[in-house]
Amino acid sequence: QKEVEQDPGPLSVPEGAIVSLNCTYSNSAFQYFMWYRQYSRKGPELLMYTYSSGNKEDGRFTAQVDKSSKYISLFIRDSQPSDSATYLCAMSEDGGTSYGKLTFGQGTILTVHP
Amino acid sequence: DADVTQTPRNRITKTGKRIMLECSQTKGHDRMYWYRQDPGLGLRLIYYSFDVKDINKGEISDGYSVSRQAQAKFSLSLESAIPNQTALYFCATSDWTSGSRQYFGPGTRLLVL
Asked: Would you call B92 helix, strand, or coil by DSSP?
């Protein structure tokens, strides 16, 4: 079993829809949780960053972390065609020899059609 | 100019050849990483370096080697390329003050024939 599981999709939604992307994980030591967005033929770019449990909102994007369930989510409101990309979840421990090392999910391919 | 650059952006090589991928950064970060990306497998860590004198293996280091020539430069070598090393390769950087935030280069697309 992978340490981080992410449904690869692909996911196709109409413009304006609410999108929900999710990851589950097994390592209870993970404390940092990130979402990266990767456009075709580009490097991943950091979209959301949270520490421990809770919610974080940035414009149309909301990241949620539920450490008790080992489950994280990214919500995109009023999705736009420009949101079409691969979304990768990533996690890291806090401290110790693994500090700073990221473990990634497989990535979810999202297409928002007009 | 981009903060993290990778050269070359695309490379075709033959089985058995030695190749080097290079990464440079102007972010002033002390930590640098090399990943490979394969369809359906996400990003997997090959090697990482927390400073010039520190080199560590990641989860898939076999068949690869690295060199940290300076704080800003981190190179990945394939000593004898094989077809299953065909992949997208990404360099990333971070700083001890940035928690686990990593910043990625544009990637190198490598094809081994």
From this structure: strand
Q: Is the CB of residue A113 less than 8 Å away from at least one CB of chain B?
A: no
Cβ atoms A14, A113 nearer than 8 A: yes
Closest residue on chain A to B43 (Cα): A104
Chain A CB contacts of B96 below 8 Å:
100
The answer to whether A61 contacts chain B (CB < 8 Å) is no
Q: A–B: how many Cβ contacts below 8 A? A: 57
Task: Report the gap between the CA of A15 and the closest CA in chain B (Å).
Answer: 26
Asked if B110 and B45 touch (Cβ cutoff 8 Å), the reply is: no
| B16-56 confidence digits (pLDDT tens) | 999 999 999 999 999 999 999 998 788 999 999 988 999 99
CB atoms within 10 A of CB A46: 15
User: What confidence tier does B12 reach under pLDDT thresholds 50, 70, 90?
Assistant: very high
Q: What is the pLDDT of residues B55-69, one digit of tens each?
A: 999 989 999 999 999
CA geometry: angle B37, A61, A64, nearest 5 deg = 80
